[in-house]
Specification:
heterodimer, A: alpha+beta, B: alpha/beta, six-stranded mixed β-sheet, four-stranded antiparallel β-sheet, 32% helix
């Protein structure tokens, strides 16, 4: 027999209680992990941003459009390498469930200069530029929807009430979030608006301008220069780094991280109470056995460690079950479809699994620590008098 | 010439119960020679278990000295005592106190986990001990699959597996029927006579005491002189 076997046998002596404790820890971790993953996903988006890229939007909020004519003035500012308007179209592909990607109108000439991390074959890029109804799609979406070069994508207008008939002319690669977008000509959107809504010249406005600076050092100067151009207009702008722009989306959700941290802490505290009660019960029943171990020569610290190892073993089993279940369940669920493209994935990464195991291990240490400490504090004679 | 294994001098043990101080043992002197089989007898509350616990190092005297094999144990720390107990003491409890989730083999092996012995050597020790108590065919049985007498024999195997200098029994037959009690006592006597083990056994059963070489009686915390028996108080 080894100490490991001794711990296992003691930890599983009351099978029903052990299974229930394992399941409660597992369920807790299964609920906790998505929250952590959500925060992780938000952080990851910010990490993916380019420090030399800026976004110009309406000074009040990004959902207010800004005029198309701003572009020429913006591009006169030194240090700007490329600039493209991006207008959120927000159409529906087949139905809501299939619309798991975002659609933007852009300037096809400069799109890939502003986003150099998007990789596309040269001939496809040229085909995209040459044809007004062309669309480029992310690799993951092309794979998922079975789109090939030459396929048609029909979008029904929702945010902008015009329908678009697009032809796939390019498939680009990038990060999972980037591959969740499709891009088409802004001029085509304007033509559709003019034809279908009767507005001469089309929208005349864009949602945002995305600008790539020659270096991160130029970003503050360019940002200030752009905003100064339009400060006294009826549509003033706010130009910020891509990271800051992405953070404004997160801030729309309120202090989401604080909220999630609070909920997570409450969940952990609840399972701590449940586990502590179970472990206290388990230790209390064995005060006499603990005294026997000490009588046989086991030092108090060793008995304490054996008891705590039992607790940690049980909570770790629960933690492992819960985190792995979350890991595999979130792989099976199409998060993009559920969130209509807002989130392409909720990856329960190995580091999140490790975090889950650390949390469950700590729950085991804390919940077992107190009752085990009290039980081992008794003298052998006191323990032997105990009727368990 | 027989050497003294246990030497107790001026031993006093008091307990505090609320605001009162209760004297469990007073001014006790006792010598136990090596190879002896001593029965400590007395009524409930006479201090016999307290004396046994102090010899075992699981309780500490209020004053006085306890020397076992030439080592004074009264001032040892809790950790030192634990290690010392593992190497020198074999303890047999009235209620057997086997770990219910461990097999007979594993229960006997338990004290050996604290030693440096390899698993092979541990196995040899465990099998020898179980053979000695006549349970080599019950190694994989759990305590609940054994009779009371068999459980106590496993407990005896656990007590002797480390080859301790002294075996201490606290009412080892108290929970057994007459036949099992006799088996256990016979076993203890054999361990004393054939293996030369020093045994101190607490009992209030005169029939059990007859298996010992000597008897010493305690009454109200006093260790009575050799040959003097306590007088059992009768209800009027």
């Amino acid at each position: 027999m080894t100490f490991g076997r001794f711990i296992w046998k003691n930890g599983t002596r009351n099978k029903r209680r052990t299974i229930l404790t394992v399941l409660s820890v597992a369920l807790t971790l299964f609920v906790l992990i998505p929250l952590v993953t959500f925060v992780n996903e938000l952080d990851r988006r910010l990490e993916e941003t380019n420090s030399a890229r800026l976004v110009t939007r309406h000074a009040v909020i990004w959902i207010f459009p800004i005029p198309e004519r701003y572009r020429m003035q913006i591009e006169k500012i030194p240090g700007i390498v490329a600039n493209t308007p991006l207008t959120y179209y927000g159409g529906v592909y087949v139905d809501r469930a299939h619309t798991d990607f975002a659609q933007y109108s852009c300037d096809p000439q400069t799109l890939f200069d502003v986003f150099p991390e998007l990789k596309i074959p040269d001939e496809q890029r040229q085909a995209f530029i040459n044809e007004q109804t062309a669309v480029v799609v992310g690799r993951s979406k092309a794979d998922k929807h079975g789109w090939k070069i030459g396929d048609r994508i029909n979008l029904k207008g929702a945010v902008i009430p015009v329908d678009l008939e697009l032809i796939v002319r390019g498939i680009f690669s990038g990060s999972p979030n980037e591959e969740s977008n499709i891009y088409f000509h802004h001029t085509y959107l304007n033509q559709a608006v003019e034809a279908q809504l009767g507005l001469p010249g089309g929208l005349g406005e864009v949602s945002t301008y995305w600008i790539r600076a020659d270096s991160p050092a130029s970003v503050p100067r360019i940002s200030q220069a752009i905003d100064e151009l339009f400060v006294n207009t009826d549509k003033p702008t706010r130009t910020e780094t891509e990271k800051s722009f992405q953070m404004s989306f997160v801030s729309l959700l309120g202090n989401i991280k604080y909220l999630i941290a609070t909920i997570s802490a409450l969940i952990i505290f609840t399972i701590l109470l449940v586990t502590a009660n179970t472990m206290a019960m388990s230790v209390r029943e064995r005060v006499r056995e603990i005294a026997v171990l000490k009588a046989l020569g086991f030092r108090r610290r060793r008995v304490l460690m054996l008891l705590m190892a039992e607790g940690v073993m049980i909570t770790l089993m629960g933690g492992l079950l819960g985190t792995l279940a979350a890991h595999f369940v979130f792989r099976l669920i199409d998060i993009a479809a559920y969130t209509q493209g807002s989130f392409q994935r909720l990856d329960v990464t190995w580091s999140i699994i490790a975090l889950g195991l650390i949390i469950s291990g700590l729950v085991g240490v804390v919940s077992t620590g107190v009752p085990a400490y009290q039980a081992t504090k008794l003298t052998v004679a006191e323990g032997l008098r105990n009727i368990g | 010439m027989t050497q003294t294994l246990v030497e107790i001098r001026n031993l006093v043990r008091t307990f505090r119960r609320g605001s009162n101080e209760v004297i469990a043992l007073q001014e006790t002197d006792l010598d136990i020679p090596e190879g002896d089989f001593l029965a400590l007898m007395g009524p409930s509350g006479s201090g016999k278990s307290t004396l046994l616990n102090i010899i075992a190092g699981i309780d500490k005297p209020t004053s006085g000295t306890v020397s076992i094999g030439g080592i004074e144990v009264q001032d040892m720390s809790e950790d030192e005592l634990a290690e010392w107990r593992n190497q020198n003491i074999g303890f047999i409890f009235q209620t057997f106190n086997l770990i219910p989730v461990l097999t007979a083999y594993e229960n006997v092996e338990l004290p050996l986990l604290l030693t440096d012995l390899s698993s092979k050597r541990r196995r040899e020790h465990v099998m020898t001990a179980l053979k000695l108590v006549g349970l080599s065919d019950r190694v994989q049985h759990y305590p609940q699959q054994l009779s009371g007498g068999q459980e106590q024999r496993v407990a005896i195997a656990r007590a002797i597996v480390t080859d301790p200098v002294i075996i201490l029994g606290d009412e080892p037959t108290g929970d057994l029927d007459a036949r099992s009690a006799e088996e256990v006592l016979t076993l203890l006597r054999e361990l004393n006579e054939h293996s030369g083990k020093t045994i101190v056994m607490v009992t209030h059963d005169p029939r059990a005491a007859h298996f010992a070489k000597h008897e010493r009686h305690l009454d109200k915390g006093f260790l009575l002189p050799p040959g003097v028996k306590y007088v059992e108080e009768q209800f009027a």
